[in-house]
Amino acid sequence: PFYWQEILRDIFVPASRMESSRIRKSLQAHNPPQEDLWSVEPASAVIGSPLSESHIFILNNAIYGEELEDLTREQILGGPAVLSQVLRLALGLPHPKRK
Length: 99
What we know:
two-stranded parallel ribbon; 7 helices
């Protein structure tokens, strides 16, 4: 398994240093806690400005993957949780219609 610390240390930091003259701004990453991702409030209210200001959202499957493994793609993307909202936003999917 890969760990974010290793990926950042071994890939992002060296690449950033090699291309520092071409990088115009700092990379903004956000790693929301699981309780925020499981909230059913609007993502903008729970996450706030990092939702629109972050270049990378870290969704750590190692932490909560077991809770999601029995769900289908449709269940995850169609759900009301902040995680579902963020994934739909990232994928450019519309908000699901409720019956």
